């Protein structure tokens, strides 16, 4: 029987979300968890900026500052940006390709819970002896020297959440390869789906090096290994290589979906198809490919020698070409269009100049000989915040506003949305533009304070003021979410009126089964094509019938919990007697859950045809 | 390269930018006020890349502003459906080829300079006639050893102007990075290997900057990473040679002042296990676990950061943890009474080679 008609109590709702395998609910879980960690990372950012507002400030201590800066970076990348990207992918991609769900709904849920428990584990460090303090890059010599358990929390927490990400990536690869509706050829896939596809491939190849690096580090720190101890034949530079072989593609893992989101928004609100669609696809694939060839540009000052530095410098510059193609394609998408400045479109429009600045400073950084000056200075801090905030965060905010009605059935308030936008946009440039100059004026990054008399006072104060604008914008956004949830009006299938892709053809939010009948896709922007021909809905590719759905299950939650307990045990196994047994018990919990998953035959259930018809009638009336 | 730059069309843009940027920061710290050959090359590259990037930004901005004003949906256009354009091969080729050309313009000098800056052959010749400094980075302090002269100092690097000074760089505990922004880009001091590079300090520009450049640690290394500063005294070659001679011939001078004598007594009891007071220190580097204090009184800062005076020295000796959290000196010696502080301070202030 279906869950559609049931009225639920609070307990039942929680149980529903703990056990759900529905991609739309998992998207909401990712959104909530990622949003929470985004606020946490933002709070850490505010602490950093307050500490650096004036020279010789003693708002927080030097040691605590290092913990905060490490957790800010780690949280924002792994626990905020990644899951929020996954929220968008889960909410949209299956519907965009005309599928009823992802290929492996069980794994989808497992991916989320692994990420979630990994993130919670990492943040437990605040309460259990201190957070990691070696930067999000956690370079080996410093992280091995770190006296607290912080780095151990980092290693095990990221290992667990990284597994979740890897599983998620594989899932989307398989989904996009296998689950496309009839007629949805690769070259008819919406740009966001393409971005998800390439991103998932990047995840598949980028996360294993991180896993290896984290295992080495775990061995060194917890089990007497010597992978990174030069005195015993280890080498710390290996960590840097492994980390950046992961770390650089990670940037593209975040920014390609951002490009995808903006591509959808530009087309929708310019009421025009994406300009140069095939070159956009080509550029996305090329960026993904080149993204693996450039990691050593993070290591220009390590001493790899002029040959390596020159090769990686030129390879890095090459990435600017496909990125440039994208920028001009977006501009030309708007050219001749009929642009409507909704909140998502404001972010998209603001993204272009912001991201271009981040992109060109990237090319400047690529010039190895000059990078000896930029490297590890505030110039680099400014550069990557322009890319990550101006690119990824703008995209996530844009995507959240854009797809909010599709996820929750209500529109976020446009007025408040624009207030958030302006506060965030102004704050962002105020905070980070000046940091380019601080770096060039000789301010190294990751400093807990700076001395007076070095010409760095004004810049830092301006930067801190900007941070408060961004914080204010975020608060308005939160208020918007609450107000919308309480008072928002229900909307129909296509609330922006200019929706082009399949997700705008189903009700908001989409029914559990997405499509009553799998649609037939007749070209790029499938829904737009139908609308232009005066049709109301999609052309079905199958007769109406019973719909086969997967059963909810608590097993992914249990498996992840087991790993969480296990990590906690092994982390303390050198300090306490209970460590080892708890570690083993945790692993057993996971293994038993996996065993049950293997032997229980779960055939799922069917939503009968009549129920689907009834739901569709209701959906149409809403 | 300079000539080539002059011939280049961007020259006016570049000089305008140079004027603009030169106002940024302090001459002893800013990369925008280069003080030697290395920093000059990097500055040229910065200007060239910035000029190209400003052009790119300008082009994008112009198209951008035109598009978002010209094509906004106006009243009465609610039902207008614009023409659905697929793309344009001509345009796409243009915006592929032009960036490639711009990048080649940038890539050529980049590769050239990258190799130029890596030329450390003169320091590795058997019979070398260049100044070589072995830099050893330690948790929050720097050791500078001049292997050809057999002398060691710390915190204040002394270099001759108007010639290439070569460096061997390594770290003794965790990774650090050696950076003198006004003189040139940084290089990491690794725990695994020794890195080599060179820097140059112009006589004229060193004088303008007050002959004291600021050096920084650029790699996160622990709580006091931000305070791991050092200073560079750039002096003419003749003066440098004099300094080397003085360092080589420095002899401890017996003081007649009973307070200084008392201070020396304390020092010999509590401090000498880690700190050497002669510039010639034959012990292996593993044994040199704290800064050499032979020319302590000649230094420009206490602990690399505080103004050089007795008051600050006392504050440091009393509670170094308060000044540099996480340093390796805290709690390695018994607490000092006011009288002992006074004596020790007086003694340390006599450690001079001048």
Automatic annotation (TrEMBL), chain A:
InterPro entries: Cyt_c_oxase-like_su1_dom, Cyt_c_oxase-like_su1_sf, Cyt_C_Oxase_1, Cyt_c_Oxase_su1_BS, Cyt_c_oxidase_su1_bac. Pfam families: COX1. PROSITE patterns: COX1 (PS50855), COX1_CUB (PS00077). It catalyses: 4 Fe(II)-[cytochrome c] + O2 + 8 H(+)(in) = 4 Fe(III)-[cytochrome c] + 2 H2O + 4 H(+)(out). Keywords: Cell membrane, Copper, Electron transport, Heme, Iron, Membrane, Metal-binding, Respiratory chain, Translocase, Transmembrane, Transmembrane helix, Transport. It is found in: Cell membrane. SUPFAM superfamilies: Cytochrome c oxidase subunit I-like (SSF81442). One of its GO terms (molecular function) is metal ion binding. Its EC number is 7.1.1.9. GO terms for biological process: electron transport coupled proton transport; oxidative phosphorylation; respiratory electron transport chain. Its main location: membrane. It is a multi-pass membrane protein. Pathway: Energy metabolism; oxidative phosphorylation. One of its GO terms (cellular component) is plasma membrane. Residues 9-522 form the Cytochrome oxidase subunit I profile domain. Cytochrome c oxidase is the component of the respiratory chain that catalyzes the reduction of oxygen to water. Subunits 1-3 form the functional core of the enzyme complex. CO I is the catalytic subunit of the enzyme. Electrons originating in cytochrome c are transferred via the copper A center of subunit 2 and heme A of subunit 1 to the bimetallic center formed by heme A3 and copper B. Belongs to the heme-copper respiratory oxidase family. This is Cytochrome c oxidase subunit 1.
From TrEMBL, chain B:
Its main location: membrane. This is Cytochrome c oxidase subunit 2. The lineage of its organism: Bacteria, Bacillati, Bacillota, Bacilli, Bacillales. It catalyses: 4 Fe(II)-[cytochrome c] + O2 + 8 H(+)(in) = 4 Fe(III)-[cytochrome c] + 2 H2O + 4 H(+)(out). Residues 128-246 form the Cytochrome oxidase subunit II copper A binding domain. Belongs to the cytochrome c oxidase subunit 2 family. Residues 258-352 form the Cytochrome c domain. SUPFAM superfamilies: Cupredoxins, Cytochrome c, Cytochrome c oxidase subunit II-like, transmembrane region. It comes from Anoxybacillus pushchinoensis. Subunits I and II form the functional core of the enzyme complex. Electrons originating in cytochrome c are transferred via heme a and Cu(A) to the binuclear center formed by heme a3 and Cu(B). One of its GO terms (molecular function) is cytochrome-c oxidase activity.
